[in-house]
Structures are given as C-alpha cells and as structure tokens.
C-alpha cells in the first residue's frame, strides 16, 4: 500500500505541488518522502529543476548506489538529507539564488519496481533580507530566524549566540529545548527557553517553533549589544544557521526646554578670557578714538581760521580800505542768507603822480554773488571787463 502525495504508474501523474517561499541567501528544505507498507529499498533518487520557458530543465542532484552527486551550479549547495532507508529523499538547498526559482521534481525508484514515484515543489525566491539592523539605544528589535521546509520537521533545539568580534568570547543569548526544566517561554511554543547573562529578561522567543521559526525580540537595546547574533535551528541531525549583525546608534539626550529647566550656560576658561578681553579692549579704545576725532576737528577749524586771518591781514596791509571792507563782509553776513563770494584776482596798483603832484588811487569793491543770480545774464555783478577781470569802481 502506498500513501502520500505520490502517484504510481508509468504516466507519471503528479497529484500535489506544495509551494515554498524563501529569501535570497537562505536555505530551503524540499521534502520527498515515499510512505509505503511494503519494505522495499530505494535504489535511485533524481532531483530536476524546471525554471520554465525558454530555459531547459537541469539536473540538481542524483542518488544511485549509495552515492549522492550534486550537479552543475548546485555543487556545494545541494545535498540529500533524507534517510534513504526510510524512503526519504529530501533535498536541502543552501544559499538560494534568484536563478534557483522554479519547479523542483523529485523522482524515486524502488528495487524490483518499474513504477516511478514523483513529487513536485514550487520554489519562490524573494529579494535578500537585510543582514544588518540599525537600532537606537533603548529601542527593541526583532531578529528573524525561520527555516523553510515543505515537511513538518520537529525542532529539537534553537540556539542564539552573540559575538562582539575577535578575540571576544561568544555569549549565550537564548537557548530553547523542549525538555528544559525552566518554565520560561511563550505558551504557543509548547516548550521552554532560557536566557542568561546580561541578556536575561531582555530576550524573548517570539517565533512559532512548530513552523521552524526561532525568531527573537531584544528589548532595551544597549550600546554594548552591537555585534553578530547567530541563530542555529536543529532538526535532528540537520542544522540551519543564520547570522544578523546589529548596529546600535547612540543618540544624544534631548531635553525639553521649559522656564523651570532653563539654567545659565557654563563657559569654559578660554571662552571667558576672550569675552573679558574684548570688553576691556573696547572700554579702553573708545575714549582714545573719541579724543582723536575731537582733536582732528579742532585742528581743521584752527587751520581754517588761521588761513582766513592771514589772508585778511595780507589784504589789509596791501590796501587798508579794501581790507576793512573785506573784514566787515566776512564778519557780518546778510541776515537770513548765506553769501557766496567769487574769487577775485587783484592787480597791483601803480600809483602815478600827476604833474600837479597829486596821486590817484584805484579801489576794488567785492560784491556777493547770490545763488539765484549766478545764472542771470542781466546781473550787473557778473558782467566782466573785456580783460576777464571784474569791473571796478573808481573814486576820485
């Protein structure tokens, strides 16, 4: 009598095609167990991959005469893990690649049997899961560890180990075993687990062991928790391993600023010296700058006054009457208006004595040039003599 998901006969009828989904880099266990009440030896097992059109079928592995041989690109990645004596030709495919997606067909032949027993498994491959986790201090993180299999295999043990790097020793993060006497763990697993050392009371087994899931959650992450975490799932003599690298981000403490929380800023010694020096320098230089500006203004006024007085004195010496008139004009400006005087070039007055013995003198009178009359062509003040000199009044 034959039971299970297999067919008998030369027509190679396949009655079931279970599906399996894994990530790139993980392992997949594809079961192929022939259950029969007849005690016959399994003489040959073939595993074929059909990736679909237009690719051709290719051999994955074959077993014959107690020899298991992986083929082509599946060398060092595919192995027969079933118990041949119990008609178990299950295949373990490690480090799954994207090109491994497709339909895997197992063919089992028994001694003195012309019939072929077949089973197909559809493998779906997802993108690679991140092998590195970034976690902030104080947060929690989940580390997955799932062994994908089409067959119900009983997990015998789950180990999680931590290593911060060479030459540090490995630390036990968590251990699961159905026969552990420590009653700690999630009830759905039907077993117990224990964690030790600094991970005690911070690590919980959250995966469903009945589905080959040994995932854990690490709570209250500390900066010292950064490193590699390796999971090992034991299914009898078969061991599946997965490593996750944990990076811990140290955050700067953030304070909520409130009126009560405000406090004076404590300056360092260098900052305090610089501030005091700037203040003192400013206080010392300010009076000096003010004194320099004040003296400069005084010097300018003094030079201007001295020049004006000397000019008037020279004019008065040359012509006393004109000098008095200039002094009077310079000292008494017209009420409410500013006078603008034009520059006058004086000519040397040569006194000539007439035959009668009398001398004749020529006097020059300065007239103010009003702004409103500078451009007036009819202004008699602006009229000049033919020689370019302003007109003069003669007194006899």
TrEMBL record:
Membrane topology per record: Single-pass type I membrane protein
Organism: Daubentonia madagascariensis (Aye-aye)
Assembly, per entry: Homodimer; active form in leukocyte-endothelial cell adhesion. Interacts (homodimeric form) with CXADR. Interacts (via cytoplasmic domain) with the PI3 kinase; upon CXADR-binding. Interacts with ITGA4 and ITGB1; integrin alpha-4/beta-1 may regulate leukocyte to endothelial cells adhesion by controlling JAML homodimerization.
Record lineage: Eukaryota, Metazoa, Chordata, Craniata, Vertebrata
One BP annotation, GO: cell adhesion
Residue ranges of every copy of the Ig-like domain listed in the record: 11-122, 127-233
GO CC terms of this entry: anchoring junction; plasma membrane
Protein name, entry field: Junctional adhesion molecule-like
Transmembrane segments annotated in the record for this chain: 272-293
Chain residue ranges for the region called Disordered: 371-396
Family from the record: Belongs to the immunoglobulin superfamily.
Source organism, top-level taxon: Eukaryota
UniProt-annotated location(s): Cell junction; Cell membrane
Biological function: Transmembrane protein of the plasma membrane of leukocytes that control their migration and activation through interaction with CXADR, a plasma membrane receptor found on adjacent epithelial and endothelial cells. The interaction between both receptors mediates the activation of gamma-delta T-cells, a subpopulation of T-cells residing in epithelia and involved in tissue homeostasis and repair. Upon epithelial CXADR-binding, JAML induces downstream cell signaling events in gamma-delta T-cells through PI3-kinase and MAP kinases.
Record key words, sorted: Cell adhesion, Cell junction, Cell membrane, Disulfide bond, Glycoprotein, Immunity, Immunoglobulin domain, Membrane, Repeat, Signal, Transmembrane, Transmembrane helix
